[in-house]
Amino acid sequence: MTTPTTTHRPAAAGPDLDSRTRWAALVVLCLGNLMIVLDTTIVNVALPSIRVDLGFSESSLAWVVNAYLLTFGGFLLLGGRLGDLFGQRRLFMAGIAAFTAASVACGLAGSATVLVAARAVQGLGGAVVSAVALSLVMNLFTEPADRAKAMGFIGFVAAGGGSIGVLLGGVLTNSLDWHWIFLVNAPIGVAVLLLSMRVLPAARVRGVGTRLDVAGAVTVTSALMLAVYAIVNGNAAGWTSAQTVGLLAVAAVLLAVFLRIESTVAAPLVPLTLFRRRNVAVSNVVGVLWAAAMFAWFFLSALYLQLVLHYSPLQVGLSFLPANLVMATFSLGLSAKLVMRYGIRAPLMLGLLIAACGLVLFARAPVDGQFLTDVLPAMLLLGFGAGMAFNPVLLAAMSDVEPQDSGLASGVVNTSFMMGGALGLAVLASLAAARSSSLAAAGEDALAALNGGYHVAFLVGAVAAAAAGVIGGTLLRIEAPAMSYDGAPAGSDDDDPRLVPAGF
Q1: CA gap 401, 408 in Å, rounded
Q2: What burial letters (b/e) apply to 79-118, b meaning 16+ CB within 10 Å?
Q3: What integer pLDDT is reported at residue 177 of this predicted model?
Q4: Sign of CA dihedral 404, 419, 124, 324
Q5: Interatomic CA distance for residues 87 and 81, integer angstroms
Q6: Which residues of the chain fall short of a pLDDT of 50?
Q7: What is the spatial distance between Cα 391 and Cα 138, in angstroms, rounded to a whole number?
Q8: For the domain with range 17-212+269-475, which CATH number is right: 3.10.20.70, 2.60.120.10, 1.20.1090.10, 1.20.1250.20?
Q9: What is the pLDDT of residues 40-72, one digit of tens each?
Q10: Is 472:453 a contact under the CB 8 Å cutoff?
Q11: Pairwise CA distance, residues 384 & 380, whole Å
């Protein structure tokens, strides 16, 4: 058997930049990505104030969140591919500009309609930024040690940004008002744009033409948006209602049409050969399950603290601070060392199992819980687990693809996280509500019934995290074969253990 040689060539920009410029570029990318991640949770603490100020009804208030999720989830794949086709720096800056302008519009909104419309534009800009930022990092850092460190920063933003958003949302809402959770993005966005022009490489896109698979883009974006809409409204409309079932059915048909288009078109939006790469496929399954567990942590623990323990928004935010500090310690230093010494499988599996233990602790938190005994230990375990696991998850998803497909791979893994989080939160909220209703019907008081519902949701989230750890720890390939530019394996034996992973 002939051992194939790697055809994975780093993007032209990577080697041409000095080390200082590359790390400065990473800071800019992290700042831009942090704005996007924060916005998935920062608004939740301020929803009661927004409802009173702008006159939202109970049902329409959900659109402050759903409008963002709808466009964010729908455009991740397309945003990533557009970066591959037309330049990742160009798309990153366009996404930041759209997100920043929409943030200002949100902050100045005087009506519910304006706020919801601006939130939709925020989601569109956020999708583009999220999809291309990860691929830029992969192409900037081609040395294994530097790439592991850089992915640690990205992992911290991805894992810790949500809980930081809860903290920041509580601080801004308590000390100022809800408008500032959006207006704070304006100076950051302008700074990111100005710095991007100085430090991000304007690399020539290699190996890909400028043709866009319009039919594929329309069908997959429509399918994702319909699926997200059905999922986030599933609890309100009913999971077996005509609306939910009908929308999911249409989304499935559109997805089937998309797959048919991709198998026949000359320049597909998503080459289906991408999913033949084991690490890409497995890491996306892990991403779906892990995102469901993470959303259980961010949202359900915040609800437990507010509605059961009666914490203020600021107290809720501060409760997440220990987890953020632990997560930062692991993501920004220790995680890279673990990956370099033990590879991606062991840290991923151990981290997700530790996080599952944290969710199990939340599943036993009582109605009269105390912070030091019932909240802090779970937060610390979740911080350890998330900080340890996110770096290897992202590396597994991205290190198996060539530079000209890195934006697409980033869009795929971000879509997995997004869909897993949305679906996981909807399912867990539904399970919690059903359990609470049954406990109330059995004679439990309202607070105990509410807490009992959260216990069930935390347990299911723990199972999802543990399953993600086992799947990743057993099925991810330690060494993945390099792939040629046409998407086929560079050699004849797909499972040859001697092969070196792309980019490593």
Answers
A1: 9
A2: bbbbbbbebbbbbbbbbbbbbbbbbebbbebeebeebbbb
A3: 78
A4: negative
A5: 10
A6: 1-15, 206-208, 480-504
A7: 12
A8: 1.20.1250.20
A9: 777 877 777 788 888 877 567 777 877 887 788
A10: no
A11: 6
**pLDDT value of residue 480:** 40
Say what the pLDDT of residue 205 is: 52
| 3-state SS track over 42-56 | CCHHHHHHHHHHHCC
Residue 248 host element (H or E): helix 242-264
**Closest listed residue to residue 32, CA positions, set 81, 86, 82, 91:** 91
DSSP reduced 3-state for 489: strand
At residue 112, what is the residue type?
Answer: A
Question: What's the chain's length in residues?
Answer: 504
CA angle 84, 90, 93 (to 5 degrees): 125
**CA distances from residue 140 to 35, 483, 495 in whole angstroms, order as listed:** 21, 19, 28
Query: What is the pTM for the complete model shown?
Result: 0.72
The pLDDT score that the predictor gives to residue 431 is: 84
Q: How far is CA 233 from the centre of its chain?
A: 20
Q: Tokens 């942090």 sit at which residue?
A: 34
